[in-house]
Amino acid sequence: MSLRTNSFLILTIWYASGVAFDANAAEPLPAAYTIPTIDLADQKQRQVVVDREAGQYLGHPTTVLLEDNKTLLCVYPKGHGRGGIVYKRSNDTGLTWSERLATPASWETSKEVPTIHRVVDADGKKRLIMWSGLYPARLAVSEDDGASWSELKPVGDWGGIVVMGFVGKLNEAGHYLAMFHDDGRFFADNGARKKPVEFRLYKTFSQDGGLTWSAPEIIQRDTAVHLCEPGLIRSPDGMQMAVLLRENSRRRNSHVIFSNDEGQSWSEPRELPASLTGDRHTGVYGPDGRLFISFRDTTRESPTKGDWVAWVGSYEDIAEGREGQYRVRLMDNHKGADCAYPAVEILPDGTIIATTYGHWEKGEAPYIVSVRLKLEELDEFQAGK
After folding, report:
1. How confident is the model over 88-133, as pLDDT tens digits?
2. What is the value of pTM for the model shown?
3. What is the pLDDT of residues 129-142, one digit of tens each?
4. 122-153 burial by CB neighbour count: b if 16+ within 10 A, else e?
């Protein structure tokens, strides 16, 4: 991740633990955005099919790029979240992909979206971890860059939805923060969703390079808006963390929370502009310090609603509540909003590799595709060149 070195004003924010959002405290922000949209949906030359199987739902991928900047690993379920985990490897930055690789037997029992992450302990030992959610949350570990994996094993007596939305490296060596959410059904065994439905956002910490995790703590809970599927963005100087949140009640735009103390405390949720409204935000910094954030478009008023889109702007835009520079339609989804749990990587030359699933052909089962681009290419499109 390339970080800018320029300084900027970090907003002063008030912190609370387990805070509830008052939906009546302020008028909703506008449901539509005014920044332009660049359309790449028809640019087939940018698209690489990672996996496709006739009649089989393939969805919700995440990726990890290894330190050689060539090896790309990808996991995804055979089904809508629930389903056996498929595992593939690319040795050429995602231009070509292996056949489906052998996996431990327990991976067939996955109940929810798998997420894969690179972690490093305090002694510099690198490993890969892969989460599988619902109850109980389970973890698989690889100590050899994905050549072999452990079985999925419970992390504790708890679970949740989209475990983990992110795993973020903290400033202290070997320490990580992860977040997920639950609506009462999966945090404990035999859970249930009660009325009114309350969404809870949880944080958990690891101090040993991702092997063990602390008991989850609630950092936000509410019935009025349903904030979930957290995506982490650090400020360019690394001093502040921003977490972008899906708003699942669809009453408001997406939201953001901030931390200035490495995730120990968090601001109250604040509504984002419509331009950043979507599900499962995942972002990287480009070489010039701008952000590219990929997500499913759930903006209440949008010509690309239900499609796979991205937002380009600055961290300051997020911190100060601005719309950003422009949006991008990456691919056209042909069935509702069932697409775009995105994975995003960036190469040293600035090539962004965004990978997700979707209904890319009418009447066909969803499959996994990558789109490759550079921010300067998008700038040229925006300039009309």
Report:
1. 999 999 999 999 999 999 999 999 999 999 999 999 999 999 999 9
2. 0.93
3. 999 999 999 999 99
4. eeeeebbbbbbbbbbbbbbbbeebbeebeebe
3-state class (DSSP) for residue 255: strand
Q: To 5 degrees, how large is the angle CA 47–CA 375–CA 384?
A: 90
User: What are 277's two structure tokens?
Assistant: 């409204």
CA distance linking residue 356 with residue 75, whole number of Å: 11
Q: Are 276 and 254 in contact (CB under 8 A)?
A: yes
Instruction: Write down how long the chain is.
Output: 385
CATH of 35-383, one of 2.40.240.20, 2.120.10.10, 3.10.105.10, 3.40.50.2300: 2.120.10.10
What is the Cα–Cα distance from 318 to 306, expressed in whole angstroms?
22
User: Residue 323 corresponds to which tokens in the numbers above?
Assistant: 């719309």
Delimit the domains of the chain by residue range: 35-383
User: Residues near 44 by Cβ (< 8 Å), separated by ≥ 6?
Assistant: none
The residue to which tokens 């690489």 are assigned: 48
Give dist(CA 112, CA 77) in Å, integer.
Answer: 8
Pairing of strands 37-39, 326-331: parallel
Q: Are 235 and 242 in contact (CB under 8 A)?
A: yes
Burial 14-34 (b: 16+ CB within 10 A, else e): ebeeebebeeeeeeebeeebe
Residue 369, H or E segment: strand 367-373
Q: What percent of the chain is modeled with pLDDT above 90?
A: 91
Q: Which of 361-364's residues contact partners 24+ apart within 8 Å by CB, and which partners?
A: 361/334, 362/334, 363/334
Rounded to 5 degrees, what are φ and ψ at 333?
Answer: -90, 135
The total of other beta-carbon atoms located within 10 Å of residue 279's CB is 22
